[in-house]
Structures are given as C-alpha cells and as structure tokens.
Amino acid sequence: MKKIFIGSDISKLKLDVCLLGDDQIQDETVLVNRISDIKIYLQGLLRSYRPEDILICAEYTGQYIYPLCCASTELGINLWLENPAEIKYRSGMRRGKNDRMDAFKIASYACRFQDNARLFTLPEQTIRELKQLVSERDLYMVDKSKYKGQLTDQGSYMDREDYKRKSKRLKKQIKALTQSISEVEDEMHERIRSNPVLLRQYELLCSVEGIGEKTAIKMIVTTNAFRDFKDARKFCCHAGVAPFSYVSGSSQRSRNRVSHRADKSIKKLLHMAAMSVIKNPGELRNYYLRKVEEGKNKMLVINAVRAKLVLRMFAVIKNDQMYQKNYINPLV
User: C-alpha dihedral over 250, 252, 258, 262, to 10 degrees?
Assistant: First the structure.
C-alpha cells in the first residue's frame, strides 16, 4: 500500500490539514485544535490506511502542537516535527501565504524528504511536567528581574516620595514572585525525587564543576533525559556553542563563529556556568587564563569552556559515574 503524507499547519485554535497521496491532493480540511477532534479525523483515515503508511508532518510551534502529539501517539501514527526554517528554505520561492497553502507546502516537504524524517516520541509524563514547570519559573524570573531593575534604576531619577511609594509596591510584587518561584522549584524537585532515573541524572549533573540545579534540570528537560541527544557534539550545535567556518571564494573570509540558530535558553545557562567556573580555582580557570595569555579572544575561550562543560555532563551520564576532578582513564 502506498504511503500518504499529511501536512498540518498548526495555530492556537485550528489545524489546516492537507492529505497528499500519489503526488496529488486527496483531502483538505480544517480541524479544531483539540485532541478529540484530531483523533476523530485520524481514526477515519485508519479505516482506509494502515498506521505505518501514514506520515504526519508539522512545524514545531511550541505548546500548540501538544494535541496533535497526543492524538498521533495514542493511535500509533508516525509524526515528524520539523524546524519551520528548514521547511521554508527547502520549499522554494512562493508568492502569497495562507494556512491552506502552508499545509500543502508541509505535506509536499514530507513527501519529498521522507527519508530524512525524524519521528517524534512523546516524552514521559514527568518530563512533560518538568518542562511546564521550567517555563513557569522562567516567566516569574523574567518579571522579577524587570521589577528589581525598576527598583535600582529609578531611585535617582524620581521624586523621593513618589519613588518610596513605587518601591513599596514593587517590593510587594517581588516578594510574591519570589514565593511563586520557590513553590515551583519545590514542585520540580518533588517530580525529580519521584523518578529514580531523573534523580540519578540530576545528581550526576550537579557533581560537574560549575553546574547548578537550574542547569541540571534544564539539561534533563531539553535532552528528554538524554534520550534525544546521544552525542555531546550534536548538543553543542543545538545549544549554539559549536563554531562554524564562514568562507566564500577568495575575498570573504571570517574567523569561525557560532550560529545564531540555537536554543538560547540553554545557551544562557551554559554561559552563566562557564562564567562561574572560570572565576573559581580549578582546571577550567587555568585553561581560560592560559588561552587568554596566548592571545586568544576571551569570548572564544569562554565558548570553549561552555563546550567542555557539555562534554563533561554527557560523560558523567554515559559512564553513570560522579564527576572526578583528577579522573584517570583506566584504558590509557
């Protein structure tokens, strides 16, 4: 039986669906973005096709993809979540844009590049809960930082009495946000303690010099408990700490630099970890000082320290062994 390809353009309230088979459009429809509605449509297709003959392709659009992920996983249908930029740049020049055209474009992309499909696996419940909690904590942290900035920046530029009243209100908001952050972090630790695998990974990651609890939890969530990433170098690319060359012909030559296409949230935490570790006595601080004395650019060396931290985190997980500063490889 021939395969069919379903392109799905997902928004907050609806899914525009294009079903492609035999290089022709077989069906186009609009679904409500709910698990029940998506399941009804897919169950209708399963009366005519086997689950393994169906490939759904959609752009990764954050939390809006959750109903489609749940429905396809429950029915055993293959789902491919692709980077929107990848689909855009491989689909050629197009005039005009609407959701119906986007669904057809995604279905055509899935048909053409089906050999490159990376099938989606729904993370376990604990990972999904941790991901939501991390997002909630980040939301509160941003607001808290914003309010604290108001406290420190405006004291010299406002009337004293006005600033006094404003600071009182801001401190009240900061106190409430601090309480919320504490409650969220308690829930996160509770979820980790309830799962022996995640607890072990958390302890291993925290044993690495410079890695704190925030970075450890973020690494677990981002890597899906180190199931989605097996290679530390690939994760360095994902996190934006892997340098790439920029050369064209004989006239355009640039030093190697990192790409802006990266997971900025994990990159920020890795940067903070690198800055922490180079300020304290240790191997990485000595490495940083030595490279700077050799004339290396400081940011380039800091980026190398970020990569070393990633390599160490993957190493302790792979070996299932706490980090040792003076580790000696028994095979050498």
Answer: -110
Q: What is the pTM of this model?
A: 0.84
Count of CA atoms in the C-beta half-sphere (13 A) of 229 = 23
The rounded distance, in Å, linking the Cα atoms of 35 and 219 is: 29
Angle between helices 196-206 and 213-222 (to 10 degrees): 130
Any idea which residue has 């990192």 for tokens?
Answer: 258
**pLDDT digit string (tens) for 43-83?**
999 998 999 999 999 998 888 999 999 999 999 999 999 98
pLDDT tens per residue across span 28-54: 999 999 999 999 999 999 998 999 999
DSSP state, 81? E
Q: Among candidates 113, 114, 122, 102, which has minimal Cα distance to 15? A: 102
Q: Which long-range contacts (CB under 8 A, 24 or more apart) does 94-99 make?
A: 99/9, 99/11, 99/14, 99/16, 99/30
